[in-house]
UniProtKB/TrEMBL annotation:
This is Flagellar hook-basal body complex protein FliE. Keywords: Bacterial flagellum, Cell projection, Cilium, Flagellum. GO terms for molecular function: cytoskeletal motor activity; structural molecule activity. GO terms for cellular component: bacterial-type flagellum basal body. It comes from the Bacteria. One of its GO terms (biological process) is bacterial-type flagellum-dependent cell motility.
Length: 107
């Protein structure tokens, strides 16, 4: 029989979390014009999605081969890829919804 879990102590002594430094700007050149920023953001987002999915695929192959040293790395990469895909689909759905709404407007 196991003993019940006692209260957590010493939480106040935890170290503060350091702020995360912003990442370097994307190397994708910005397109000029009113839609340039959105187009470059969309392109950069899709490139990032491909990289994240590629990394998760690499780790999945390593896990299948038995050469993966840290299974948690695959779990994190897989979850990151799933979230990035969900975000991309949500953005696409909103863009299609906005386009449909614009097409319904009367001239």
């Amino acid at each position: 029989m196991t003993s019940p879990i006692s209260g957590i102590s010493g939480i106040g002594a935890a170290l503060p979390i350091a702020p995360v430094a912003p990442s370097a700007p994307s190397s994708t050149p910005a397109v000029s014009g009113p839609n340039g920023d959105f187009a470059s953001m969309l392109s950069s987002g899709l490139e990032n999605l491909q990289k994240v999915q590629g990394r998760a695929d690499e780790l999945a192959v390593q896990a299948a081969n038995g050469t993966l040293s840290d299974p948690a790395a695959y779990t994190m990469a897989s979850t990151e890829a799933a979230l990035a895909t969900q975000l991309t689909v949500a953005v696409r759905n909103k863009a299609v919804e906005a386009f449909t709404e614009i097409m319904r407007m009367q001239a």
